[in-house]
Amino acid sequence: MLVRFGKWAVAVGIDWLNPGKSEVSGVTKKHGGQARVHIDRKPYQIWLGFHEPVKGDVYAAAPLVGLVVSNAVILFPITEDLVWVCMVRDGMPAALHDLILPTEEGRNKAREWHSMYGNDLEMVGDVPGASMGIDDILLRIEDQVAQKTIKKKQLAEFRLHNPRSAGRRVGFAVLGALIACSAFFAWQHHLNQQKAQRDQENIAMQAAQAAFLAMQGKMGAQANIQTQIANFQQQVESSRKEQANRVDPAQLWGRAAHLRRSLGVSIRGYLPQEFECDVQQCRVKWNGAGDDVLVGDKLSLPNVEPNYMPDRNAVSNFPFDPALVVSPMPARADAIVSAEQLHFWLYSAISQRFPGVTFDASQPVTLTPPQGSGLQPVVVGEVGKWHATFGAGALISAGELLGAISKWPVRVVSIKITNGSAVVIEGEYVFLGGK
């Protein structure tokens, strides 16, 4: 797409590739009907950019920005509904990162790149928070050209060139006529040369096939990297969503307590000795009380696992039906700006009221990108573990704790109730800001 800034006409949304030197001819031929930018950074770096044919002097916008800002994320509104979003690394456009997108998608893409590729990327464009606009960059280029710190030859390298057309076909026609005349006067010599020519054509065809296969291999590798990047980005979003949501601890405690009441004190002489619950289900361990309890009766316990051992022990599983409701972590009125501060407030508000509750120091949750992707590790939050142990009056104390702690960004991992006289709770507290 073409955008005009005063006397400048620039192209955005260019299809950039980084072929090897032997692949340039094949890639160019594949894009034969498009205008082309060829940037050669010796000894081995080549950038090819392709765009629809243009009229007049049109320059590729991304490398122009790279003359002024070496590492940048560019976000520039083109229309009310479209933005240009692009990434420049070491002064050159990153392949597959020069895009025209709907406004909201483009903004999300810019934030995503800025987060994943590091803080060395400067925000550029006519958007809030940008260090400079595109107009500012072009004015600076004009000043540097006037001062000869940027040579006009450098700018010429960024200009788009339309594909050759009629003139080239006329040249081939003239060449064909000359060959025909030569053949007329030296027919025998022409015949003698045919075999050598065919051999040369076969060699050239084999070389072209080898180059094409090499290009396919490289493009396949690039496609694989892009797939890995997309999968990693999806993993990051999924992890952030997981950290930002939970099952309300009070809800889990209510369902566990309801199950405990519904099972009663004893079924056919078997007592529910231990309840261990997570957000998916409760696991109940039974024990037959007394020698007169029949071993076979344990198979009639509700939801019991098959167990044919000649003893009076059994285990039942009770999946929550309906499933527990997952909801966002609660927003606190306190201005919590770090995991350390959250740890302090939890200790002050919870541990001093409930002496059986302790909070461990938090650790960052870091996702490592695939090797060779160029991405940096992403911290999606910080998580610390907490523990609660209650003895006498355990059920009342545990219920009060989970009612109070539900107001904080915490989740429960497991609840264990033993003989109704002891409760052990394991959980996590979550700070989404990261370090």
What descriptors fit this protein?
435 residues; 10 helices; alpha+beta
Q: What is the element layout, followed by pairings?
A:
Elements: E1 2-5, E2 8-11, E3 15-17, H1 24-30, E4 35-41, E5 45-51, E6 59-60, H2 61-68, E7 72-77, E8 82-89, E9 92-102, H3 103-116, E10 122-124, H4 134-146, H5 152-157, H6 166-185, H7 187-244, E11 245-247, H8 249-263, E12 270-277, E13 281-288, E14 313-319, E15 326-328, H9 339-351, E16 357-359, E17 363-367, E18 378-390, H10 394-405, E19 410-418, E20 422-431
Parallel strand pairs: 2-6, 7-10
Antiparallel strand pairs: 1-2, 3-5, 4-5, 7-8, 8-9, 11-15, 12-13, 12-19, 13-14, 16-18, 17-18, 18-20, 19-20
